[in-house]
Input
Amino acid sequence: MLLFDLDGTLIDSNGVWLEVDKTFLARRGVPYTQAYYEGVAHSILPNCAVFTKEFLQLSESCEEIIAEWMDLAQGAYEQVPLKPFVREYLDRCRASGRRMAVFTACVPEHCQAALTHHGLLPYFERIIYAQELGADKKSPAVFRQAAQALGVPPRECVLFDDSLAACKAAKAAGMTVVGVWDEGFPGVRADMREVCDQYIESFGELL
Output
């Protein structure tokens, strides 16, 4: 089973959330910092909202924070491009009969919009949302849950992901891991190469 992350792996969308975060913080006169990035990167929105509310000591509810983020990101996922050679690699995998699924921390509406826009929904037998599992992709347990939902043991899964934390968790769960370069996270190359079974700058390397 090939298991693909969405943001920063299949689509070039991490910049969308960088701009959302910067705009959200600027409205409150707060600079975008590494500490804030580390608190929200690769997390599901409910957890991001809890962190943001506490980090900024906001009076808004978590629901109001999420609503503002969704408004700021509205329409963006219908325009986000695929990362290089993604379609070609998926075509090759489908032609060879490989089973494929998506496992993402992305908001379901955004994920559906992006995959529909690029005509990729037919490639995947299932989309598993970390948000629906109620956990970030930072613990081995959530990857074991994803494998169970797909009816396969973790050792039969190959994860493609740009997140160092997700790659570490998937490895600990027993999956084979292919790390994917994303320009939004330039400082993780060395760690990704150490953690992952393979690390690619582009899906073109797999063709």
